[in-house]
Each structure stands twice: as structure tokens, then as C-alpha cells.
Hints:
By secondary structure, this protein is an alpha/beta fold. Helices cover 35% and strands 19% of the residues. The strands form three sheets. The protein has a seven-stranded mixed sheet, with helices on both faces. A two-stranded antiparallel ribbon has the order 1-2. A two-stranded antiparallel sheet has the order 3-4.
Amino acid sequence: xxxxxKKKKYIKLPIKTAVNGKKQYNDMSDPSxxxxxxxxxxxxxEIIYRxxxxxxxxxxxxxxxxxxxxxxxxxxxxxxxxSFKELNTNMGTKNVLDFPDYLDKISSxxxxxxxxxxxxTGEGRINxxxxxxAVMDSRFMMGSMGEAVGEKVTRAIEHATSKKLPIIIFxxxxxxxxxxxxxxxxxxxxxxxxxxxxxxxxxxxxxxxxDPTTGGVTASFAxxxxxxxxxxxxxxxxxxxxxxxxxxxxxxxxGFQKAEFLLEHGYIDMIVERKNMKNTxxxxxxxxxx
Length: 290
């Protein structure tokens, strides 16, 4: 029996030590679990492995909910690799109304997101077809439209008109930016005017409405597309449901601001799942060329 105990090897367990009255473990303590490898779907509650989530273009693997996508991921998914050239990269925000702490918030978001403002614009190709694209990013002040956003969108439209190219805009916005007041509202007219000239030149404009598309963006360039697409379950509207109900004193239909309801009532042309978006856009561009 003694011989058996001599031959058997035991693993030395990690030792607890006390530093400043606090228990600590050595390097071989509890096995570490990498952080950020799992996310929880806020629709069905499923715990999703992040790598699978990214592989599926940020869609829940169980209920197929389309999570909000940042502008960089969107451009990588839609535009041919190596073909994207960003426009107006240095255009930033001014505090035109001297709103308290506004520029501090902008600076903080710029550092956090790596974006200059809430929209990224540029030239690129979709399966070889040259286009201009603008992608709004809800991480930056909920994609709200201030002077810089409106100017970047307008210049992208004008660039497409001058180059005789179609333009595609992916919308994601909470609407006008309150910190810029009337200046923000003026962007609705400016972007719409640029789109009118683009249309007069016989050029194609496609909008893709993503969650959420609301307020002044909905009331301007989001709903002016020659073809209007939307992702599944996208929230689309101008004012909030509660505000509308209180204004008209009527109970509204369930889901009346969802893409599916708007498709049924003729406000949008098609609902396209993210995995099919690039191919659908290519077919529309190809059809327009012919």
C-alpha cells in the first residue's frame, strides 16, 4: 500500500496568499474564461457565441433578429474588398448654438467609436458596379442628423450626380439633433434638394432602412429613394407611438411602425435579410444599367 502512494503523482493546488488583508491566487488558480466571447440576444434571450454571431453578419442564430450594425461592418459586408474610398473624411461638428458641453460629448464619441461623425460616405463597388454609398451609424449620438451629417450626405449625393453614379444610403437615426436646433432641421431641405437634382439627371437612388430610422431622417432623404428596402423588424417612423396616440386620441395598430407593416401598406418596396442584401443591391443596380 505504501508503494502505491509513493508512485502516485498528485497535482499541487494553487495556494492562497494574503496581500493587504485580501486573498489572492497564484498564476495557476481558477481557469480563466475569455471575456466578450458570448452575447445575449435581447429578443429571444439566447446566449450566442460571438464568433458565430459575427459569421452570421450580426444576426441571432436562434431567432434571426438583425442586431444594429456599425458603419465599418456594413461597408465591409456590402462593398467589394479594397474598393472603398471614403469622402469628406475631415468634416466635423461645430457648436453653432453654443449648447453646453456639446463638443465635449462629440469628442468623447469620436474617441469611443473612431468616427468623425454619425455617417460615413464614399465611393466603392458592389460586385464590380461602381456606386456612391452613405452609411449612418447609430453608435454616434443615435445617428442623429446635425449640420455635419447633413452636409456629408448632401456632398455624397452631389458627388454621385457629378460622376453620374447611383447612390445607396443606409439609414439609422433617431432624427434631427436637438443640440443644433433649427440648423439641424435645415438639413432635411438641403439633402432633399440634392436628391431632386440627382433624380433629374436620371440617376438611381436606393435607400436601405435599418433599425431605427425615425424623425427628420425619415421625413427627408430616407423615404425619397427610387427603391426603398428595409431590414426585417426595422423600426420606421417619424414621431414615437405614444406621442401619436396622445395627439390623435386613437389606439394605433400593433407593430404599425415596423418594416413588415409598412411593406403591407405600400410604404416600402421590399424587406431584405442581411445575408441577401449585397446580391439584391447588385441585381437592382444591374437592372437599372440595362
